[in-house]
């Protein structure tokens, strides 16, 4: 039986006194899924925020919803394809400790305050980098369990409540900047067919403590425009819907939601979150802009103090540094958090290979294509120096 390694989540207080350094996320590259959910290495699915008219019925259009069938396991394919193209353009390997989706890091970051979460991930080590993906079978099983649970009397179904989030995006986004969008389109967004096929995915460099990371994830929109200068921060915005906060119980629930809102945006460097407050029947009534960086302090000073952002950062940093010492070779590893468990468990499920975590194209590129591309300059240099006279390619050719 495979050895199980454990990393204690509790007591959470042991992470509070640390002060792990964070590397500010910077976009490295990006890609899009178009309206047919085909991968495109461009920004064609980038969207622009413009607030909707209120009140807005988020139920409208549910019958014509174009919902993506995500029952197939896409692994890290889109992320790896984009990184492969980036490496081809730069002619060198991206050196990093961990590559994963934003969703995986969100689950890890919030673990100290999410005892009811139950999830599994798969991981492998390849060329010194740990690649982490969601365990797709566990994800599908958890979703089926959630959606099969009968709704409370008078409550809306999980299907339609899930739709509300996509409807909120549809009525809040534009395909072009506001200055280039006809007024007729802006005013008719409530009539647009809702679809979750198209996505813009940002890939960032970041880091926790000593661990360097590359993280990919969908971003909803930019507030104004995306600067051409990559050194400039991008004014991203994340859109979230939630029930109107009408009593203390709802306040506690909202504060717990804010933990994941904050972590998701923090990881990709999204500075603003627009929260749409709705009634229990799905009528959008109010909008609020939140500054991502300010959320932890707001929770500490004005909320119920249910979680601490720095503790989440410290925990993630400690766990990742520990993980680097555990997953040091190939094979497929399982990272697991069980509901109400005080620890994360790591164990090997396949002794060799990388499972389907890494695409064949990516492995071939890293083992054959990249090495061949890196040898070309050396070959040119050797050829130039072949007669023993030219010492530098920058010198004039020998005549």
UniProtKB/TrEMBL annotation:
Its EC number is 3.6.1.-. This is Decapping nuclease. One of its GO terms (molecular function) is nucleotide binding. It catalyses: a 5'-end NAD(+)-phospho-ribonucleoside in mRNA + H2O = a 5'-end phospho-ribonucleoside in mRNA + NAD(+) + H(+); a 5'-end triphospho-ribonucleoside in mRNA + H2O = a 5'-end phospho-ribonucleoside in mRNA + diphosphate + H(+); a 5'-end (N(7)-methyl 5'-triphosphoguanosine)-ribonucleoside-ribonucleotide in mRNA + H2O = a (N(7)-methyl 5'-triphosphoguanosine)-nucleoside + a 5'-end phospho-ribonucleoside in mRNA + H(+). It is an enzyme of class 3 (hydrolase). Decapping enzyme for NAD-capped RNAs: specifically hydrolyzes the nicotinamide adenine dinucleotide (NAD) cap from a subset of RNAs by removing the entire NAD moiety from the 5'-end of an NAD-capped RNA. The NAD-cap is present at the 5'-end of some RNAs and snoRNAs. In contrast to the canonical 5'-end N7 methylguanosine (m7G) cap, the NAD cap promotes mRNA decay. Also acts as a non-canonical decapping enzyme that removes the entire cap structure of m7G capped or incompletely capped RNAs. Residues 23-362 form the RAI1-like domain. Its cofactor is a divalent metal cation. GO terms for cellular component: cytosol; nucleus. One of its GO terms (biological process) is NAD-cap decapping. Belongs to the DXO/Dom3Z family. It comes from the Eukaryota. InterPro entries: RAI1 (IPR013961), RAI1-like_fam (IPR039039). Its main location: nucleus. It comes from Capronia coronata CBS 617.96. It is found in: Nucleus. Pfam families: RAI1 (PF08652). Keywords: Hydrolase, Metal-binding, Nuclease, Nucleotide-binding, Nucleus, RNA-binding.
């Amino acid at each position: 039986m495979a050895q199980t390694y454990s990393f204690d989540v509790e007591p959470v207080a042991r992470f509070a006194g640390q002060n792990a350094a964070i590397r500010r996320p910077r976009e490295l590259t990006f890609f899009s899924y178009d309206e047919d959910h085909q991968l495109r290495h461009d920004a064609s699915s980038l969207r622009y925020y413009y607030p909707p008219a209120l009140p807005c019925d988020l139920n409208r259009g549910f019958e014509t919803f174009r919902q993506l069938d995500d029952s197939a396991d896409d692994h890290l394919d889109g992320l790896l394809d984009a990184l492969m193209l980036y490496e081809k353009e730069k002619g060198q390997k991206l050196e990093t400790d961990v590559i994963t989706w934003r969703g995986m890091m969100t689950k890890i970051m919030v673990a100290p305050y999410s005892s009811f979460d139950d999830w599994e991930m798969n991981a492998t080590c390849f060329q010194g980098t740990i690649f982490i993906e969601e365990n797709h079978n566990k994800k599908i099983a958890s979703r089926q369990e959630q959606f099969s649970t009968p709704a409370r009397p008078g409550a809306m179904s999980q299907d339609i409540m899930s739709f509300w989030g996509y409807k909120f995006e549809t009525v809040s986004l534009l395909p072009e900047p506001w200055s280039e969008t006809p007024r007729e389109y802006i005013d008719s967004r409530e009539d647009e067919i809702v679809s979750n096929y198209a996505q813009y995915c940002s890939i960032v460099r970041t880091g926790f403590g000593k661990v360097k990371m590359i993280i990919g994830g969908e971003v909803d929109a930019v507030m104004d425009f995306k600067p051409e200068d990559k050194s400039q921060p991008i004014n991203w915005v994340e859109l979230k819907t939630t029930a109107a906060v009408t009593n203390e119980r709802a306040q506690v629930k909202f504060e717990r939601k804010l933990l994941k809102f904050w972590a998701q945006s923090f990881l990709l460097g999204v500075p603003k979150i627009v929260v749409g407050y709705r009634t229990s029947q799905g009528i959008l009534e109010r909008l609020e802009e939140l500054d991502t960086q300010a959320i932890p302090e707001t929770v500490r000073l004005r909320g119920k103090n249910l979680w601490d952002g720095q503790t989440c950062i410290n925990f993630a940093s400690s766990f990742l540094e520990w993980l680097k010492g555990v997953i040091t070779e190939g094979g497929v590893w399982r990272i697991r958090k069980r509901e109400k468990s005080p620890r994360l468990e790591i164990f090997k499920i396949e002794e060799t290979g990388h499972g389907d975590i890494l695409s064949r194209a990516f492995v071939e590129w890293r083992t054959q294509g990249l090495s061949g591309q890196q040898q070309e300059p050396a070959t040119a240099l050797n050829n130039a120096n072949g007669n023993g006279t030219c010492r530098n390619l920058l010198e004039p050719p020998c005549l």
